[in-house]
Amino acid sequence: MRSECYGCKKSFSGKGLVVSINSEERTYCADCLWKLQKEYAQKKSCEECGHFDDESCGKRGKTLVPVKAGFNTYFVHAETCKDFSTDKKENAKKKNELTEEQKEAAALVKKLTEKGQTLTVYCCHCGAPQKIGAKAPETQNTCARCKGDLEVINLAKFIKQHQP
Fold first, then answer.
1. CB-based contact 61:52 (threshold 8 Å)
2. Domain residue extents for the chain
């Protein structure tokens, strides 16, 4: 099955990675998704706003439409919001808090390390092998060779598929 990347318009094999922007689903290749995630990570986020409350704006009372890129969700309405304020930080979500997938992946890597097992994951950008487990107890967020973002790989799912 061939797909076409919405960003670079190149054709590639496989399904591609689906991104939801303004309730419109688009298919991207791994390289374009990585660039898109970097772009959205630098934007002003509603999660930094004191009025942000559980995927809605407390000031306007509207449910916000998230941008879903890979495993990340961005609320970037703050870029154009005139009510953006960082005064009430107690309602804002903590950015440093790990997601459930990241917690699960860390626990599974720890289990692999304790068993002395190692799995090899290949970078979706350049194909370089990345070791996880006993030989590399720390999970890598970026590729050592191309510095590509490895968060597009669901490590928890990958480890579960390869455990006996």
1. no
2. 2-91, 100-161
